[in-house]
Amino acid sequence: MAVMNAVGKAVLDMGPGMKVTCESRKMQFVLDEPPELGGTNLGMNPVEALLNSLAACKCIVAKCFAKANGVELEGLTVSCKGVLDPDGFMGINPDVKIGFSEITTTYNFKTSSPKDKVDALVKYIESHCPVHDTLVNPAKFKCVVKV
Question: How far is C-alpha 128 from the chain's CA centre?
Fold first, then answer.
């Protein structure tokens, strides 16, 4: 399979709040912040979106590879919980990590397959999820500024 390029574009709304319209492949969604962080609560915030992207990617990997791993998947909910101290982002405490200090994934399977097969599938998911891999083994970042 050929290498793919994924593109995400975010456009800041200059009105009240922190609304940002995000677009990929002509599909859009809105991100914002809650009022206590200066937003208008029109959408989840970027770190919530990151956790949801991680959870969704793990669901997709599970669905793609459950049968190959011997699991009859009847249903799956994946929750990702991140620990974040806003004092880092807000510049209040320079010793606090700016992003998540910990992310916990909870899998809730509906299956008749034995637990050892489910555990093996989870191990496979954790090692083959592209979003998980990007967080654990960060991509090289480049920055281009246009004015």
Answer: 15
Assign a CATH topology to domain 45-136: GMP Synthetase; Chain A, domain 3 (3.30.300)
Structural domain boundaries of the chain?
1-43, 45-136
pTM above 0.85, yes or no: yes
For residue 108, what are the β-bridge partners?
Answer: 77
Please state the separation of Cα 140 from the chain's center in Å: 18
Give me the DSSP letters along 91-133. Answer: TS-TTS-SS-SEEEEEEEEEESS-HHHHHHHHHHHHHH-HHHH
Q: What digits encode the pLDDT tens for the residues 22-68?
A: 999 999 999 999 999 899 999 999 999 999 999 999 999 999 999 99
Main-chain phi, psi angles of 108, to 5 degrees: -125, 95
